Amino acid sequence: MPESPATRPRTAEGAEIGALIGGAFGLLFLIINSSSFSSLGRTLVMATGIIAFGTIAVVAVRSLVRLRAERRQAMSAEDREPGRRREPPFGRAYWIIVLIEAIALFAGARVLSSLGHPELGVAWVAFVVGTHFYALGYVFKLNRFHVLATVVTLCGIGGFIAFFAAAPAFIPVISGVISGFVLLAFAMWALIPAER
Hints:
Elements: H1 15-33, H2 39-74, H3 92-114, H4 121-140, H5 143-164, H6 171-190
Helix pairs in contact: 1-2, 1-6, 2-6, 3-4, 4-5, 4-6, 5-6
């Protein structure tokens, strides 16, 4: 017997948009930080990233179309009354966190460059992106964001460790490429429906 829309397992509210954002940034991490790889290495990284993001995009868009159709069908006359709107999943708290993240990214990168260590920029980006997921996990009440936050933050810290261990060539790998794949993997995970 097929499941009704009401009983079917669903993704978290806003998961599709969140997966597209996270996946896009994951792919961007790969594009920027694999530039020093060999031609074969970069091709493999890019192909894997593009396939992963393409899969995320297809699944997310299909899910959004299905959810929109279900909501339209379930909308009652009462819901159509003026003034009755659902709170969007990306509210004020989300935008405050994103603003703080953007300021921290820009300020930190400027400080590192002024100190003569622009190569640490990618480690700083991974650290800030990772820590902002702790706040998002709290706002969205999603524990899986805390896992993502920990892994990406550790990738950022790993980049700083590589710098102090006199292995700066590993910074874009640890903080950039690995972070990119982690973001893509978690974007895929976000699209897995959870039982209500």
